[in-house]
Specification:
The chain is of the alpha+beta class. The protein has helices at residues 2-14, 28-41, 63-69, 73-90; strands at 44-45, 51-52, 56-61, 100-105, 115-119, 130-133, 139-141, 147-150, 157-158, 169-174, 177-182, 189-191, 194-195, 200-201, 207-210, 213-219.
Length: 220
């Protein structure tokens, strides 16, 4: 059981998906080991004597490492989450809500390095107070409905700008927060000046850029 069981389980699950050679300095099993370290280092005991561990993880990688994993990122995230659940079951750890793993680009992280932020998010306790502030100072409170950003008039946030695609990006709810996702736009979507190539969890103060327009995300 324990770490070896986790590694064996992750290895079995990803064998077919990740059998090709990697150009990245970071391998999936190394991300898995880093998640386990984060879980074991942050376990606490609640009033019922249960060992409570984080269930939400943000993996931060250097741009080159993330780019090298981009083609398999969605599958990797799914397999990592499943492996975490199996490990927690083996160790009799208590998860207070669904397991979620996201991968983000972080310019401050060195190549080959893996940084992880984790948190405990209770099921159904999500609803943080969040909003976006548009360039004209309009404020939109976020909820369960996905907001589409684009050039079409029917978009929830519409910009009459040829540099903005008809359906450019979307902001949607996650367990414990919100994320932005590019919808295959021509000119890309940026968060804090960095072009995103995958769903990106948002943090208070993040700036989403589409075309020449900036949208500020605020959360409490």
């Amino acid at each position: 059981m324990g770490l070896q069981s986790f590694e064996d389980g992750l290895g079995r699950m990803v064998e077919g998906v990740f059998s090709r050679a990697f150009k990245s300095n970071v391998r999936p099993i190394e991300i898995g080991r880093r998640l386990i370290k984060e879980i074991d280092s942050n376990r606490t005991v609640d009033m019922k004597g249960r060992r409570v561990v984080p269930n939400q993880f943000v993996v931060r990688l250097a741009p080159d490492d993330q780019a090298a994993l981009a083609d398999i990122e969605s599958a990797l995230i799914t397999e990592l989450a499943e492996a975490v659940k199996e490990y927690c079951a083996d160790e009799n750890y208590h998860l207070r809500g669904p397991v979620a793993v996201t991968i983000e680009i972080d310019q401050s992280v060195g190549t080959g390095r893996i940084d992880v932020d984790s948190s405990v998010v209770k099921a159904g306790a999500s609803e943080i107070v969040a909003r976006v502030i548009l360039p004209d100072d309009r404020k939109i409170t976020l909820g369960k409905a996905t907001l589409v950003i684009g050039r079409l008039a029917e978009c929830d946030i519409a910009f009459d700008d040829s540099n903005v695609s008809r359906r450019h990006a979307e902001i949607k709810a996650l367990v414990g927060g919100f994320a932005v996702n590019d919808l295959g736009s021509t000119n890309g979507t940026k968060v804090n000046g960095v072009t995103i190539t995958f769903e990106r969890a948002l943090r208070d103060g993040d700036i989403i850029s589409v075309g020449s327009h900036s949208i500020r995300y605020e959360a409490q």
